[in-house]
Every structure is written in structure tokens, then in C-alpha cells.
């Protein structure tokens, strides 16, 4: 691990000021469950690490005036699971309870999950986000069994690592970004927060140097159904091979609006418009959920080693819908 300065912030303003001293040469530390290993492997080499874990204003889970919920970026998975407000969003609980490691539930934060850098093994071995070695695209020619099956026609083949982004996007969540200047803030639909890098200098989110995520806001849960399903290889700590989250508005027993978002199948969370279109005007049954799964994967373009993920993505969509409709799948 290379040397770096450590600075602990005690307020949002303090964090922004500590980040502003060295623009582009800082890293934010929340729970540290991933950042510490990135520092150890020298995949991230900041001049200063800004620890935000003591900023109390970023921890609360509270109701919004319109009946939604505001979640601080430092809320831990354990706090999400315990929160009666978050319990109104079943798809979030489906995801939080699937992360089966007490340590991660206690330390991992929702902001850290959203900014988690890809788990792509070429990136984690030091070949950069795009997995290049002397002009060779390792993620295209090498073993790509865990890579993207959607949005993979450019150089980026990794999959977005966030567990919560699909369900948050399915709930039309917005994200508050603070900085880089003190007092500067922007609210962005979470759907627009993630980017697919085209070059080596681009990251995986819209965060600019000196900015941080402070809060998320979810629209009211009342009157809507939701479910999420992750296909995991192991029953312990593991990353999904494919995942999906669905939020449904129903009228007279049929779907009036559906939002279906896949995870771990593309460089960003993947909103499936074909799946949502198929469901409009339909009840949720085994047959319609199956059709939505098929529609979702109609856009897939698997790589040489990951055709199997197409089937898993279809199953994830189907089961997220059946869970939303109350089935125990
Ligand atoms: C050994 C190990 C195995 C793990 N395996 C799994 C697994 O299998 N499945 C799983 O789901 N999770 C796993 N995790 C947990 C994983 O690290 C989660 O993504 C966790 O939620 C990250 O939260 P954190 O607060 O610890 O993030 P940190 O490690 O503190 O930060 C992660 C990234 O987000 C940035 N960041 C953090 N907060 C903010 C913010 N507010 N604004 C802007 N940027 C921010 C950091 O700079 C860093 O780049 C594992 C962790 C460990 C240690």
C-alpha cells in the first residue's frame, strides 16, 4: 500500500473542504469494506483519504414530506434491514437480506455500494477498468464468464457491482450529489448516475472530483408492489451472476406501469423497456412473468463464455415479478 494522508470529516462541509484541497487525488472512505482492499492492491492511489464515516447528517433514514423516504449515504445494510420505513420497499429488503455476511451488513453503506468499483478480475488484477493489456482487450479475448451480456459492444465489458442500484432505480430514486464547492448540490435521477466508460480516464459514475453522494430519495411506496431476485452461486457472501428488481403499479388487477431493472449483466444497471412494455395491461402470472423475462433478454448480446447468463437474467426478471406479486420464490 502506498502512503497517503488520512483526514476525518465531521460534517458535509468539512468533507467537501478536505476533498477540495487535492482535486482528483482523493478517495472517500465510508465503511471501507472495498476501499481498503483497493488501497492495499494499489488499484486506487490517492494522495488523501477522506473518512466520512463520522458525518452524522449522512446516516439518517427518514420520511420525506410527500410520503417517500430519504436515506443517508452512510446508512448501513443492517440499518436498512431494521428500518420500518425501508420495510415499505420490499425489493430493498430482498437485496439487503441476500447479502449474507454480518460484517458487511454492519459496515457496508449504501453510498459505498453505489460507488463500488467493478469486481471484474482484469480490473482487480491491475489492467484498468477496460481490461486492456498492450492493446489487447483481455475481457473480450480472455475468460469473460462473469462479464456483461448487455451494453457490451464498446470497450467496457465489466458488470456494474452495485447490489442496490437496480431496486433503487426501479423505485425511481434520486441521488443528492454535494460539491465540489461548499454549498453546491444537485439532485439526479439515479438512473442517470451510472456511466459506461469509453476511455481509461472515465469512471463508472457521474461523480466529479471533489463530489460525494450524501442522500437518496425514494418516491412513496404506497399503492405499488416490488420484488427483487438475485441469482447467487453460493449461499454465503457472493456477488450475483444476474439480478433483477421490479416495481409495479396495478389498476384493476392488471399492470398500469412497470419498471424492471437488471443488475450484474451490463456496465451499468440495465432498465428493460421491452419487459415493461409486455406487462402493460396484464395481470402478473407465471405466464406473463415468463414473457417479460423473455422480452428482457431479447436485447442480450452474450460474450464467448457467458451465454448461460442470458437464462439467469430471464429467471431473475421472472422471479422478481412473482415476488412483487407475493409469491415465495
Ligand atoms: C472481503 C469482502 C468481500 C465482500 N464481498 C461482497 C459480496 O460478495 N457481495 C456484496 O454485495 N458485497 C460484498 N462486500 C461489500 C462491499 O464492499 C459493499 O459494496 C459495501 O456496501 C461497500 O460499502 P462501504 O461503505 O464499505 O464502501 P467503501 O469501501 O468505504 O467505499 C466503496 C467505494 O465507494 C466510494 N464511496 C463510498 N461512499 C461514498 C459516498 N458517499 N460518495 C462517493 N463515493 C463514495 C469509495 O471511495 C470507494 O470507491 C465485500 C466486502 C469485503 C471486505
Structural description of this entry:
It is globular, with a radius of gyration of 19 Å. The longest helix is centred in the C-terminal third of the chain and has 17 residues, at 308-324. The model has no long low-confidence stretch (mean pLDDT 95). The chain has helices at 12-20, 35-40, 77-82, 90-98, 102-107, 110-114, 121-127, 138-141, 165-170, 273-279, 286-297, 308-324, and strands at residues 5-8, 26-29, 48-51, 61-63, 69-72, 132-133, 136-137, 174-178, 185-189, 212-218, 224-231, 242-251, 254-263, 270-271. Strand 12 (242-251) and strand 13 form a beta hairpin. The protein contains twelve helices and 14 strands. It has two domains: 1-52, Uridine Diphospho-n-acetylenolpyruvylglucosamine Reductase, domain 2 (2-Layer Sandwich), CATH 3.30.43; 59-115 and 160-324, Enolase-like, domain 1 (2-Layer Sandwich). Helix 10 (273-279) packs antiparallel against helix 11 (286-297) and helix 11 packs antiparallel against helix 12. The chain is of the alpha+beta class. The structure holds flavin-adenine dinucleotide. The site of flavin-adenine dinucleotide has 28 residues, from strand 2, helix 5, helix 6 and strand 10.
